[in-house]
Amino acid sequence: MVSRTIPVDPFDLVIFGGTGDLARRKILPSLYRRFLAGQMPEESRIIGAARTEISVEEYRAMARDSITEFVPSSKRDAASLTAFIDHLRYVAIDATGTQGWQELREEMREGMVHAFYFSVAPSLFGAIAERLHEHGIADGNSRIVVEKPFGKDLKTARALNATLAEHFTEQQIYRIDHYLGKETVQNLMAIRFANILFEPLWKTEYIDHVQITVAETVAVDGRGAYYDTSGAMRDMVQNHLMQLLCLIAMEPPYHFDPDAVRDEKLKVIRALEPVRPEDIVRGQYAPKNGKAGYRDDAGNPDSRTESYIALKVGIANWRWKGTPFYLRTGKRLRARTSEIAIYFRRPPHSIFDDPEGGRENVLVIRLQPNEGINLKVMIKEPGPGGMRLTQVPLDMSFAQALGPDGSDIPDAYERLIMDVIRGNQTLFMRGDEVEAAWAWADPIIEGWETRQERPHAYEPGTSGPEDALMLLHRDGRRWREIKE
After folding, report:
1. What is the pTM of this model?
2. Which of 87, 167, 209, 240 is catalytic?
3. Which domains does the chain possess?
């Protein structure tokens, strides 16, 4: 299968925080891969902007090193890398002062798409937005990209939305969640709405429950101070897992249109039922084999912040009432994996002598690693001796379909940055969507803070706290095994 590359209009993309970790690891390598694919027009330019006082040549050298480190050698060559680096510029700029803004204005060209990537702390969003207009750099056709965290609660999210709205319209603001740029996540909509096979079954009459898992093997060391003010609920559930839940549970939009899709996602968030305290399990990874535990990594020996959380969530609407959604995410777990598992109900009556009474069909959408889709179905076990049933997978690996090593699958940032240039907001969060998610999450967080609950300790390299297993066991269900 060969993917089509559709060029975008020529652009000037300014990366505020252009020397930062995100720019080095994701933004610049993603832009290089789009350049290599022929999607980035020759006239386009990328302008790094940061407080660091370096020359254009030094910035280009940094970008070359980053691309060499984060793009596989099989996907780059010296000639194309040199050609890409020639598109880079740099401006030393003070986000809260006056330095560099006139120079940045002189870099911007007429007739180009103007996009500004705010790869900086949210506390700087307002200052940058104000100066872009004050110095005549941004206009009514410009676009801004803002990274999470988009607030830490409903109050701060509303304040941030209001700050950006003073200078940009909602149609100009692209709130990025890289999970929505993953090929498999986008395929959720294709699976549901382009195949008559699934959509008639996509409701509580046929689906027993849904599991959403985002497991990581890494600790929080290196970003422990930030993480301890956030935790798994704010860092992962309120945004990444919420978006996955919305794509699974949303009603069919009238068209694949940005606002039509986001209208349906918003309805899901507003239909979420309050989560009971007994349907929440929080955990912290403990020390093991000389490796630090969460509290050591966070630098807070009395921390009550969770590095793991599992929740049972209900949706109060006609399609999903009675079907629980189980969400879990955590650090220092057994394996790095992200997946969605849809468990269909068992047949109401089994005509076979199956001791398990017939096992359910399970549709598994793997987001990482080894992106793909797996459907477990029941078949007859080969051989004589009666009708013995066994469960087998119908497996589609994106790596096999799109490339021998999977590296032809675009990184999420590649797709999302190009969507910004196109002016397509379908895969970006709208302001009211962000606020609705916080309105649901805030009471959950306030509840355990009021009760002064401490997270359960769990051993690194496991699936999390034992209490999380009981969250499903008491309902007669069990978590899928966490494995790569």
Report:
1. 0.90
2. 240
3. 11-147 (3.40.50.720), 180-410+430-473 (3.30.360.10)
